[in-house]
Specification:
The protein contains eight helices and 22 strands. By secondary structure, it is of the alpha+beta class. Among the domains are: 45 residues; 192 residues, 3-Layer(aba) Sandwich (Rossmann fold), CATH 3.40.50. The strands form four sheets. Strands 8, 9, 13, 17, 18, 19, 20, 21 and 22 form a nine-stranded mixed beta sheet that branches. Strands 1, 3, 4, 5, 7, 10, 11 and 12 form an eight-stranded mixed beta sheet that branches. It has a three-stranded antiparallel beta sheet with strand order 14-15-16, with no helix packed on it. Strand 20 and strand 21 form a beta hairpin.
Amino acid sequence: MSLILHQFLSNPCQTVIFTLRRTLNTMVNKISLWILIFGTILSVAIGQVPLPHRKVDIDIEKFNLKTISITAQDKKINLSSLAAIHIVDARPDTSTIGLAQNYNQKPYFINTSNYFSMEVGQFVNGYIVCDKSDSLSVVMVIKKFWISGIQDKGNSQQFNGLIHDSVSQRVTTLQARIEFYLKNKTDYYALYRFDSTFTTARWPSQDAAELAEVALKASLSKLFFISSRFPSVFAERRKFSWEEIDLHNKKGFDLPILKDSALVSGVYFSFEDFKNNAPSQKKFELSNDKLAALILIKDPDGKLTPASNAWGYCDGKNLFVRSLSYYFRLQRRENSFYIYGAKRYAHTTVFSIPGTGIITESISGSSGTSYVPGEATSEGFNMKLRPFELDWDDGQLK
């Protein structure tokens, strides 16, 4: 103390600077110690498998929108035997034509600048010339026209017995199903059914419009080759009324799960159970963690038995479907259901940078994967989340 007093009396400014410097060094050492302690605790927490994953219950109404225009850029095709081509949109969700997600960004619906039926009508008018003045025309009934963007690749590796994405591949798929009818006054005759899938190795945000143009042109191409045989169709094919065709289009959505005013609580053991709003098992419990969920069936004696073959379940308010080892909430829009869920795991490595207490992650199959300096302290899995639509044809998520 006498030494400090002597220094202060001889040089007070230098003594103040010395004291402040020593105080700051003490504070920095304490902060560094807390960072190291926090980093160690966090390292232990993250080191457990499974690792944390992103929220699985995103509201589909909060998805982004990608708007495209479908235009015909080639030379027009002349179909002089027709007066017009009419478009009918009979898809389950007429508000959108696709759903995709680029890497870990927010999912987005793919819409057309106008109603889809109007957009296709404008495309057809720009691609095909119909100049006959009488009543002979064609009706295009669009049953499916769906674009999806995926990151799946077949050569996935295994880690601790679980399949996961090691490398992601950009793939855009368009599924189209269109029924064509020849109309003569008030009578309709089935011409052909176009059912095909188109793919491209790019994102929907880049190629959706071009892929839609290719699909529509492919569906219309047969008209040019069979137009000369239109007169024989009246004698060879069965005649339908529009009421019969309209009833046929709506039959696929005449389902209790879409029409009933209330949802029945219970477990679905098949897609048919779901469509009929008729769960096979009413009493159940749900046990879940970050990577897996398990339905437990309650026996008459009160014993709980795991159900490994459940399709999904209803809690009386919301619907859930199984994918991977989890149950994801089905969200309805018009006659379609969507989820933000997973079909694959993403392998995650946790790194600890020595001397800093800093922890970071490297996730395989992600655009953010990069070299991280430091030591790998643990490995684990997250669910690789992206949006899916429930396909009414087979009950699969696509």
